[in-house]
Please model this.
Amino acid sequence: MKFSQLVKSLCVGLLAVSSFAVASDAAPKKADLARGEALYVNGDASRNITACVACHGAAGNSTIAQNPKLADQHEAYLVKQLHDFKGPQRNNPVMTTIAKALTDDDIRNIAAFLDAQVQKPGAAKNKDTVELGKKIYRGGIAEKNVPACAACHSPTGAGIPAQFARIGGQHQDYTDAQLKAFRSGARKNSPQMTTIAKRLSDEEIQAVADYVAGLK
Model:
């Protein structure tokens, strides 16, 4: 083998080893569900972290209509939202205070714990709006350039992990409030949702939120 070929081979080999080392170092840490559960249920008084269960219910099944159910929500989505609460993307004084006290490991652990829980089914509050909500959710509103919600959030509201939230079975009041927050610009962490929400009327938002609440 010529010297130049040997050097080339060694360089390629070293590059491969280096790439492997970088990839290994960059690999995400495995979440600790037990620690996530402990933080969710008990909080951490030493760090002024309030127990999540107080607002979001046992195993992430909130019984307060204004507070979202978090059970079975996608881990990656929850991680993103908690990080967004640390910045200007999501404006909520309570959640911002809590999120800023959480480390990256805390966030990962809590999110993984919630992803592993089972969501209790919800139900539509206003039967009169369900049909309109169903029509918008499944088919969109062509004349207003509103796409079908099901295209991203799936026909059952299960969403797509790491991309789109699980919204099926969510409290109607919460979904309604979030769509209006996207529309007004109060919530800034999804340009796509802001664009869509701005094309919806109050009646259409309520209808979609009602329909989504009953999805399983």
Notes: The CA atoms of residues 139 and 148 lie 5 Å apart. The chain has two domains: 33-115, 127-213.
